[in-house]
Amino acid sequence: MKADLIDKNGKETTQVEVPHNFSKSVRKDIVLKAFEAKKVMQPHGTSIYAGKIHSASGIIGHKRHSWKVSYGRGISRVPRKIMSRDGTSFNWVGATAAGTRGGRRAHPPKAWENQFRKINKKEMLIAINSSFSATAEKKILESKYSIKINKKLPVIVSSEVLKLETKTFYELLEKIFGTLNKVLKERRLRAGRGKLRGRRYRTNVGLLFVIGDNEKMKINGIDIIKVQDLRLKDLAPNGVVGRLTVYTENAIKEIAKRFV
User: Where are the domains of the chain?
Assistant: First the structure.
């Protein structure tokens, strides 16, 4: 499989041999499985005192002729706390138990739970290769981003692109993808009540620019990553394949050596 090498002016110069990673079938199910296995979740749990910080008296007695018991009152034996009383008459409210107001949760999350999920090495390699192949599938990208891509995929650029200024680089991206909309990162105000809950803005993922391990680049508005740092979450955010991706010529050579 061969692909066109694009220079800094957006023109195809020569053809580059693309490794087998880009010609595999796209297995969306395995990609999602691998993403769930590698998803890093911060351990969280409830306090051991949650739902228990009150003066509930515990299990109420149920014997005859005794003070402060539930016998003969027609009430269940759930733990209760006393709100008020008049002699031997109590104003009880259920507490502590999972089915009561303000009580503990029945099965709260445990902070000591093992978050690790196993996945086979072969399945992980299939997921990575599927993600590479999806970046070279025009139908997947055009339907996902609703854009018209003008160049042959995968998009491979020469190393001279790394030295371009930001404005010139954006013009090159516009020639390749037809528009800068959805290619660059955009932050917009969230609709609804999420604005009041610490997530005021929404940001799209934007373009992924993969460079070689010895290359450097600094451009705002896109994600730049080296081959040695490339992970599944970069190629398939949220476990969904098909991300707009540009590779340098050196990155393509290193991908063939690294992901085998």
Answer: 2-39+119-258, 41-116
pLDDT at 201 over 70: yes
CATH architecture for residues 2-39+119-258: 3-Layer(aba) Sandwich (3.40)
**Mean pLDDT score across all residues of the chain:** 91
Residues 6+ apart with CB under 8 A from 46: 104, 105, 108, 109
Average pLDDT over residues 22-47: 90
More confident residue, 71 or 235: 235
Look at 89 and 131; give whichever has higher pLDDT. Answer: 131
Q: How far is CA 148 from CA 144, 174, 178, 220, in A?
A: 11, 11, 6, 23
Q: What is the pTM of this model?
A: 0.76
**Mean pLDDT in residue range 146-163:** 91
Task: Show Cβ contacts of residue 61 under 8 Å, excluding neighbours closer than 6 positions.
Answer: 68, 69, 70, 71
